[in-house]
Amino acid sequence: MPKNSREGTLDLEKLRVWRRYQSALSFMLYVALQKSFPKTRLRIEHSMSKGFYFRVSRKLSHADLMSIEKKMRQMVEKDVLIKKLNYPKDKALRLFKRIGLQDKVTLLENIRKKKVTLYCLLKFHDMYAIPPLDSAGQVPLFYLEKFPPGFIIMFPIWQDLTHLPNYIPQPKLTRIFNEYGEWARILGIDNVGQLNHKIRNREGPEIIKICEALHEKKIVYIADRILKEKKKIILTAGPSSAGKTTFTKRLAIQLLVNGMKPLIISADDYFLPHSKTPRDQYGRLDFESIDAVDISLLNKHLFRIIQGEKTTLPKFNFLTGRRNDGPTVLLPNDGIVLLEGIHCLNEDFTYKIPKQIKFKIYISALTHLNIDDHNRISTTDTRMLRRLVRDTYFRGHKIESILRHWGSVRNGEEKNIYPFQEEADEMFNSALIYEPAVLKKFCLPIIKRIQKGSVEYGEAKRLTEFFSLFYELEERDVPSNSILREFIGGSSFVY
Asked: Cα–Cα distances in Å, from 267 out to 313, 315, 339?
């Protein structure tokens, strides 16, 4: 097996164990909370500060939080077993109705499965989309942190389960999650059961329209803010498959409405020739490194453009690995530059441009939809599914290669993008509550190409199980300017 394939396989295994670690911790947190405060609702909402943000249905003091953490640590010390149980769906329904877990009742009433897998810890039962590890003793590293109005549970990073990161508050990211939570309340959907129920009631087209309208409303707000603050260069950054390109094109339209003439520039066109591109630890060309970009030329061109000088932009040819001459541009007095690239939030990337004329935007698919209260949908999974569809249907890539390379992509994001999130002036959440229901019919045929026994089969099985929870939505109702069209095709924009 080539070295790159071996490293990709190792990443898949690390991610698999890490996800099971998270499920076990979530279960332990739920059980410890119930033992301290029976009938208290726990909702694990989204990732935050390399941990999970969660909320409970009662006020908890610092002493309460430490009491819960103590009970979790006692489970670790005693190495309490987590038992796997197979139940008929109707029996599981009766169980969850009896113990008052309405979120699981709603889910089970709105999925087609006849049998479900439950897990038992200290006589408490729960369901997990990703199987928890076999015992509490396998998840020794964690701690709880108060982050009003909720809390954070911190756990090791996926690359090294022996390394527990420090908690770093992310107030701007929190606000965008809260905004998306408000959108979910407008739709009346915060879990998969509720989404499926509405799809069954033929409300899918209306859900799509509302989601897309909320996106457009936010883009209009950002464009109005840019006009009001008289910015000259808009810098948009975000991780892979966040929808940066479509967002930038839609923002450009709203800036035109505001009487501004946008000039879109891709930072990718300023890549150095492949012969000068740095390599990662595995010897691969590292296009996600800031040193892969000719920053000096980029800043020279940006400065000339805002000074009103004619400038010939480059166009990078990914087949030859070299830059060619692109269009010659001249920015009018009412012009504005839109630069898109993964490093745009890093001040070193546009060091020559005065801060006061720059406006930074962070975009990512920050999924707020949960499977149920204790099972979140990973934001990175949302982007990975988008990438699977786009790169297999339209770029000729094999799914096995995409899955193996995903760990490397995430490493690059964690190094080059996430540390600069809080530098953004504005954040845009590109996630769409309905998108898994649309992506299902695109993804399943691709996933089925992975053969049993291959190193990617475990990941294929996980994704198949994930999609089994969703009712399908037809893509015909997805508008042609939707961010989702960047990945499923049929966009009115040219890429």
From this structure: 11, 10, 7
* pLDDT, tens digit, 9 for 90 and up, residues 409-466: 898 899 889 999 999 999 999 999 999 999 999 999 999 999 999 999 999 999 999 9
CATH code assigned at 443: 3.40.50.300
Q: Are residues 427 and 315 in the same domain?
A: yes
Of 101-105, 408-412, 450-454, 470-474, least confident by mean pLDDT is: 408-412
DSSP type of residue 44 = E
- In angstroms, rounded to a whole number, what is the distance separating the alpha carbons of residues 467 and 459? 13
Q: With contact defined as beta carbons under 8 Å apart, do 218 and 428 qualify?
A: yes
Residue 287 above 90 pLDDT? no
Q: What is the pLDDT of residue 226?
A: 98
Domain count, the chain: 2
Signed CA dihedral, 56, 193, 49, 231: sign only: negative
* 162 & 175 share domain: no
**364 is written with which tokens?**
């990512």
Secondary structure (DSSP) of 79-146: T-B-EEEEEEHHHHHHHHHHHT-HHHHHHHHTS--SEEEEEEETTEEE--SSPPPSBGGG----EEEE
Distance CA(359)–CA(378), nearest Å, equals 28
Axis crossing angle, helix 204-229 with helix 192-200, rounded to the nearest 10: 120
Contacts of 93 (CB under 8 A, 6+ apart): 105, 108, 109
The alpha carbon of 309 is separated from its chain's Cα centroid by a whole number of angstroms, namely: 39
What are the DSSP calls for 249-288, one per residue?
HHHHHHHHHTT-EEEEEEGGGGBPPGGG--B-TTS-B-TT
Q: Rounded to an integer, what distance in angstroms lies between the CA atom of residue 50 and that of residue 168? A: 8
What's the full length of the chain, in residues? 495
For residue 456, which amino acid is it? E
CA 245/CA 182 separation, integer angstroms: 25
Please give the Cα distance from 402 to 27 (Å, whole number): 31
Element spanning 386, H or E: helix 379-393
> If you write DSSP's letter for every residue of 8-22 in order, what string do you get?
HHHHHHHHHHHHHHH
> What does the alpha-carbon distance between residue 216 and residue 247 come to, in Å, rounded to a whole number?
10
Dump pLDDT digits (tens) for 15-43: 999 999 999 999 999 999 999 999 999 99
Domain range for 75? 1-169
Residue type, 390: R
Last residue of a domain, one of 114, 140, 169: 169
